[in-house]
What does this fold into?
Amino acid sequence: MLCFSFMWRKAPAKTAKLVVTAPPVPSKGKKVLIADDDKVIRQTLSMKLKAAGYSAIEAEDGAATVQAARYEAPDLIILDISFPPDVANGGGVPWDGFLIMDWLRGLGECRHIPIIAISAEDPKRWEERALAKGARCVFQKPIQNAHLINMIDQLLTCTLA
It folds into this structure.
């Protein structure tokens, strides 16, 4: 024969939850456009930029990049070199970072926006051409986030002076 005994206990009083949050990062008041066909890259960079006090705008293809640069007036653009054909906007325009830089440099309102080029390939392959097209520097993916934020800080400080 099994016997069970129950002891009724008074429920413990509710205790206050301790929530630890980091202090908010002060906004630097600067917008950075992230142009990359890879959603994970865009979202990761966006989070890193927001944590550093920047606003982030994302564009997934060439047409969206040019449009965002014109209408959002970013202070800096992080631009991937390689894009697949822009099928959604025009039936296969062969956008790449170089063509996008040509378009941006041809638009008066975008001509002076600093550009950081990024690529999954060896940056030495693209660096000379990217710098000639107007990029300020080239980073290889995966990107060293602290180095990227430092470069963005430097470029945006220099453009203000």
Summary: Residues 1-8 have pLDDT under 50 and may be disordered.
